[in-house]
Amino acid sequence: MSFALSAGVTGLEAHQKMLDIAGNNLANINTTAFKSSRITFSELLSQTIKKASQPTSSVGGTNPQQMGSGVGVSGISPNMTQGNIVNTGNPLDVAVEGEGYFVVSDGSQNLYTRAGAFAVDADSNMVDPATGYHVQRIGSEGELDGFQVAGSSSVHVPYDITMPAAATTTIAVQGNLSSDAQLSTPQTQTLTSNISYTVDNSVADDDTLVTNLDQFSGTLTSGTLTLEGYKHDGTALADNLTLDIDGSTTLGDITDWLNTGVNERQTVTITGSPTGGHYHLSYGGQTTADIAYNATAANVQAALEALSTIGTGNVTCTGGPGPDTPVAVTFTGDLGGSNLSLMTIDASGLTGGTSPAGSVAETVAGSTSALGNSGAETVATASLVNGKIRVTDNENGYSLSDVKLTYDDGTDSTLTMPAYFEMSSIGGEEVKNINITVYDSLGGRHVLTGAFVRTDTANTWDMVLTSITGDISGINPDDRRIRGIEFDPTNGSYAGMNTTIGDTANFTVTFAHDTVNPQTIGLTTGTVGEFDGLTQLAGNSTAVAREQDGYAAGRLSTVSVNNEGIVIGAFSNGIKKNIATLQVALFQNTVGLESVGNGYFIPSANSGEAIATQAMTAGAGIVHGGALEKSNADVATEFVNMINAQNGYQANARTIRIANEILRELTSLIS
Q1: In 3-state terms, the chain is what percent helix, strand and coil (to 5)?
Q2: Among 525, 538, 536, 457, which residue's Cα sits nearest to residue 493?
Q3: What contacts 155, CB < 8 A, 6 or more positions away?
Q4: Distance (Å) of CA 304 to CA 146, 247, 310, 335, 407
Q5: Ordered DSSP codes for 294-360
Q6: Of 222, 206, 194, the residue nearest 255 (C-alpha)
């Protein structure tokens, strides 16, 4: 009877534990990422009453006789299978599908969980709101942008950080530039100043004094306008094109200067006391033949014409020869943009007298154009239209013309000059306009308008920056045109930049807020030999600016988590940035993990140490954002387990009851 009683007791104990486990599983049927447990029983050690014997020649063998002592709990193990994943709509809820555990820290140790119901605390840290433990990250994602602190593995969600603006550095263009399309009438290039001159906020005209302009301040006693740039054919305008202005100068005087310009009377003077000999004039690397000290005007004219950079005109000679009698050779006429003040005089061939020397003196009258008009050559015409200075080519077709005006008076007066001249009309037979919004270093928005222009060279295009909105300090003529975009004539693919022209695929713009650091904007045109960028095929021109890499400042608006466990931030400026990568831990034996409550586990001696990784790497599963893993406890299974536990408990209780009744019957034999 003792065996029956003790076995029954062990059965009660075992099935009581079975019922406890089933009850715990059912209690956690709605616990996030709960892992149900199961119990396994095993027979306790049996008492051997008689050992087995082996067969002999006369009798057979006998089996052992053993009496069992009951049942014991051989193991209680968690069921680590995947629970169902359900969407919650909360972007910081995360669930792992497959292997892996999220990692949180209490400041002293890491704990591991499948329950990813995370949130952000007052310090913008990503935490488990039930405990406040910090969610851990892996890698350096977000550190470069300042979202994460290097050396700290806690995830910081930067609701408290402003994303700084990024200046545009690259514009990507894509599409076709027609190989055969042609405008019905070739365009004439027109340059218009980007500012309109006004008087009391009304449009200025040709008779408006410079000193009366809203764009002028200070007192104008003497100032200088300087013109630079390029002609229609790309040759540079003459050096040192300047106009002296004062309080009587009008806007009409400026346009007259651009159209009429300067008539330079150049005087070459030899001083000292020579009595004879010869001298040389040098200009532009060339030197005249010997000029006799007592030369006639015709002799000097021929010598001047030998200098190819000098135009034709009239020459007069006065003075000399004789001691202390200077000779003056005066040249008046078309200098072709030359400046005889740059001429040098070699007087070493003069004889007699003392210290002969040479110099060039210059005076100014009227008739060679600053814009390059001279004689029969027609280049461009300047005018004032609605307060804006306009320069129009005198011939149509592909043009490289561009101009820039600057002002200086050396004192305290200021005259706002055009930062650049907009190309209101682009010279060429085929032009494709594009525009795109770009950003300066402070995040200011500017609409950049450009144009592709087919050049006079086959299969070659330029791109010019025609205008850009906003407060611009300056754009140099050399920095607004990208030259030599070439295409393969055999298939129309992009063939690269013509490096012999010396251009780089960049624009350079100086914004008013930062005049010290001009902003360079590069152009991405595609892969050489491919059709992934610009092409030149027959048909319409379809080229567009696809994208650029700048953006305004912004603040974090929303976050989400992708399948790789990367926390992605969407900012108010429309930019998305990777904020951090959630750390995922793997274990050799997940069943060996030790539960410490709150859905957390810690490694045990039989689980192996945590292997840190990220989702979808090294065997780790996929992370689902906006979702949670449900409990894997099954109600039907647990109900069956409870019934089995109840039946087992009742059966063992009945064993004890029967054994007790038999013992009571036994004791009644002697009463």
Answers
A1: 15, 40, 45
A2: 536
A3: 125, 126, 134, 135, 136, 137, 148, 567, 579, 580, 582
A4: 69, 38, 7, 11, 34
A5: T--HHHHHHHHHTSTTS--EEEEEES-SSTT--EEEEEEE--TT--GGG-EEE-TTEESSS--EEEE
A6: 206
Can you give the pLDDT at residue 347? 73
251 close to 333: Cβ distance less than 8 angstroms: no
Q: How many CB atoms lie within 10 A of CB 133?
A: 22
Q: What is each CA distance from 652 to 43, 302, 331, 420, 632, in whole angstroms?
A: 14, 137, 134, 101, 31
* DSSP string for residues in 440-509: -TT--EEEEEEEEEE-SSTTEEEEEEEEE-S-EEE--GGGSEEEEEEE-TTT--EEEE-GGGT--SEEEE
Report the SS3 class of residue 434.
Answer: strand
What stretch of H or E contains 276?
A: strand 276-283
Q: What is the pLDDT of residue 385?
A: 96
Report the chain's mean pLDDT, rounded to a whole number. 87
Contact 601/592 with Cβ under 8 angstroms? no
The whole-number average pLDDT for the span 488-503 is: 88
HSE of 563, CA atoms in CB hemisphere, 13 A: 6
Please tell me the predicted confidence (pLDDT) of residue 367.
Answer: 41
| DSSP of 99-150 | S-EEEEE-SSSEEEES-EE-EE-TTSBEEETTTTEEEBB-SSTTTTTTSS-T
* Cβ proximity of 171 and 538 under 8 Å: no
DSSP state of 410: S
Q: Which of 388, 402, 518, 385 is nearest to 453 (CA)?
A: 402
Least confident residue range of 26-30, 310-314, 343-347: 310-314
Grouping H, G, I as helix, E, B as strand and the rest as coil, residue 428 is strand
Given a contact cutoff of 8 angstroms between Cβ atoms, the answer to whether 533 and 575 are in contact is no
Angstrom CA distances, 290 to 275, 277, 335, 347, 665, stand at: 16, 9, 21, 10, 157
Whole-angstrom distance, CA of residue 488 vs CA of residue 535: 9
Q: Is the peptide bond before 356 cis (omega within 30 degrees of 0)?
A: no
Backbone angles phi, psi at 619, to 5 degrees: 90, -5
* Alpha carbon separation from 308 to 206, 305, 336, 337, 382 (Å, rounded): 38, 6, 10, 12, 28
Question: What's the average model confidence in pLDDT over 64-86?
Answer: 91
| Sign of the alpha-carbon torsion through 578, 153, 132, 110 | positive
Please name the amino acid found at residue 348: S
Least confident of 501-505, 626-630, 657-661: 501-505
Dump pLDDT digits (tens) for 432-474: 999 999 999 999 999 999 999 999 999 999 999 999 999 999 9
First to last CA, the chain: 20
Alpha carbon distance 625, 612 (integer Å)? 20
Phi, psi angles (nearest 5°) of residue 170: -145, 135
Q: What is the pLDDT of residue 300?
A: 66
Which of the four pLDDT bands, split at 50, 70 and 90, describes residue 144? very high
CA nearest neighbour of 374 among 309, 302, 304, 459:
309
pLDDT band at 272 (very low <50, low <70, confident <90, very high): low
The answer to which of 232-246, 401-415, 452-466 has the lowest mean pLDDT is: 232-246
Q: Return the structure tokens found at 519.
A: 């902003």
Torsional sign, CA 436, 440, 445, 448: negative
pLDDT tens string 358-404: 554 443 333 456 786 544 455 889 999 999 999 999 989 999 999 99
Q: Residue 660 is encoded by which pair of tokens?
A: 């007790």
Per-residue HEC secondary structure of 151-203 comes to CCCECECCCCCEECCECCCEEEEEEECCCCCCCCCCECCEEEECCCCEECCEE
DSSP 417: P
